[in-house]
Amino acid sequence: MGRRFKLAFLSGKSWSHSFIKEFYSMSAGIDKIAFFTSPYFIDMTDLANARGEDPNKYLIGIGQQKQAVIPPTQDVVTLAANAASSILTPADKASIDMVILGTESGIDNSKAAAIYVQSLLGISKRARSFEVKQACYGGTAGIQMGMDHLRSHPTSKVLVIASDIARYGLNTPGEVTQGGGAVAMLLTADPRILVIEDKTAFHSDNIMDFWRPLYRREALVDGHYSNNVYVDFFNQTWRDYQNRYQLAIDDFNALIFHLPYPKMGLKALRSIVHESHHPTQLMAAFDAAKTYNSQVGNLYTGSLYLSLLSLLANDTMLKPHDRIGLFSYGSGAQGEFYSARIGDGVKPDDLRQQLNSQLNNRRQLTIAEYEALYETSLPLDGGDRTFDTRTDHSPYILKGRIDNRRQYEYQNGETGSKKEQPAK
Ligand code: COA
């Protein structure tokens, strides 16, 4: 929070025009950010060989090197809890007053995954907790709602988590664009990682490019059409943003994108990069920003924010206060282009070390092992089930389901001991 704003706030100063203007221009955004994914992955060359495709189609044509395989012992609740638990202190947990979980692969048609996460992590019960859905746009919707909340409650802390498991089906064209994981972000005033500007443009339209009816575990997708709509929505929101704020491409040090797979963002960037006087810098930033996405695959809601982490950890040119543009897209469809400035507290070496260590410690599966895990899940028509949890050492795991209630467990990694979480 800016000092002048703080003084005005504490002194009860009247809401003059200039005060209101400053109120809405206070600095807020992402103060902490963390990523979590499964301990398992497959190599895209193995998948291409198993599917009778040229590996270069996956490695170059799609831009994917590896793909996270999510075991049945992880769902969007545990992925989210595992991501958020690594950044929250007891003081954060006590002062968070809003928990927003964006997902399109939720576990319940009624109860929000955010409520489970709040309970598993011991976040204050005085928080508002809910789930947001609009395909891959839910995380961004959560961030913008969190920002609105912070503008009117500047001492608040808002936890936004984008958590998803991307499934298209074995032996489908979309299989190479699967993946999963969660990105947790703590939004506060005076943030250290990313100052989110109050500059945004959005566009929505009723489009059938990707959807998942309630009776399906796998998405339905018109893949080539979705590529075209995505680039079109990017161009519409980008032009609208430029007109509203009179900013040009050269006002940005990097542009990052929702990345269901790296090539998709590249197509959007290529459609405007010729407008720049420093196209090489924007292309280099894009290369940095796809680093972890190409190792994990599609996170749906979290993809843009894993790309943000990739950029912060791997771009060697970015400095505090540089402006970046973020394009968020959720099929169906909603697009938003907004801007932000790099915070003073980004530590690229630490971020790189954490992310590389998490990804390098994963176990590679054979395609047969992946297919077996893919087919193991809680039955869609109900019934009890207990999973073998011995090989998943993630802090939070899903043990199974008893009497229609999911059984979550916290495993203390240091001692190997396990603590039951009471069924809610
Ligand atoms: N070497 C290098 N590149 C190759 C290649 C090879 N041997 N073989 C093919 N390619 C390229 C193609 O030229 C194409 O590139 P382009 O997109 O720049 O034209 C790319 O690889 C993909 O090939 P394509 O034939 O289009 O693949 P496909 O028909 O199997 O489908 C998707 C690819 C991405 C459409 C499909 O995986 C899909 O639908 N994924 C889901 C997309 C999605 O989730 N959309 C909604 C979320 S926003």
From TrEMBL:
<dbReference type="GO" id="GO:0006084">
    <property type="term" value="P:acetyl-CoA metabolic process"/>
</dbReference>
<feature type="binding site">
    <location>
        <position position="168"/>
    </location>
    <ligand>
        <name>(3S)-3-hydroxy-3-methylglutaryl-CoA</name>
    </ligand>
</feature>
<feature type="region of interest" description="Disordered">
    <location>
        <begin position="402"/>
        <end position="424"/>
    </location>
</feature>
<comment type="similarity">
    <text>Belongs to the thiolase-like superfamily. HMG-CoA synthase family.</text>
</comment>
<feature type="domain" description="Hydroxymethylglutaryl-coenzyme A synthase N-terminal">
    <location>
        <begin position="28"/>
        <end position="189"/>
    </location>
</feature>
<dbReference type="InterPro" id="IPR013746">
    <property type="entry name" value="HMG_CoA_synt_C_dom"/>
</dbReference>
<feature type="domain" description="Hydroxymethylglutaryl-coenzyme A synthase C-terminal">
    <location>
        <begin position="200"/>
        <end position="274"/>
    </location>
</feature>
<dbReference type="InterPro" id="IPR016039">
    <property type="entry name" value="Thiolase-like"/>
</dbReference>
<feature type="domain" description="Hydroxymethylglutaryl-coenzyme A synthase C-terminal">
    <location>
        <begin position="289"/>
        <end position="373"/>
    </location>
</feature>
<keyword id="KW-0808">Transferase</keyword>
<dbReference type="InterPro" id="IPR011554">
    <property type="entry name" value="HMG_CoA_synthase_prok"/>
</dbReference>
<feature type="active site" description="Proton donor/acceptor">
    <location>
        <position position="258"/>
    </location>
</feature>
<feature type="binding site">
    <location>
        <position position="298"/>
    </location>
    <ligand>
        <name>(3S)-3-hydroxy-3-methylglutaryl-CoA</name>
    </ligand>
</feature>
<dbReference type="InterPro" id="IPR013528">
    <property type="entry name" value="HMG_CoA_synth_N"/>
</dbReference>
<feature type="active site" description="Acyl-thioester intermediate">
    <location>
        <position position="136"/>
    </location>
</feature>
<dbReference type="Pfam" id="PF01154">
    <property type="entry name" value="HMG_CoA_synt_N"/>
</dbReference>
<feature type="binding site">
    <location>
        <position position="54"/>
    </location>
    <ligand>
        <name>(3S)-3-hydroxy-3-methylglutaryl-CoA</name>
    </ligand>
</feature>
<dbReference type="GO" id="GO:0004421">
    <property type="term" value="F:hydroxymethylglutaryl-CoA synthase activity"/>
</dbReference>
<feature type="active site" description="Proton donor/acceptor">
    <location>
        <position position="104"/>
    </location>
</feature>
<feature type="binding site">
    <location>
        <position position="267"/>
    </location>
    <ligand>
        <name>(3S)-3-hydroxy-3-methylglutaryl-CoA</name>
    </ligand>
</feature>
<protein>
    <submittedName>
        <fullName>Hydroxymethylglutaryl-CoA synthase</fullName>
    </submittedName>
</protein>
<dbReference type="Pfam" id="PF08540">
    <property type="entry name" value="HMG_CoA_synt_C"/>
</dbReference>
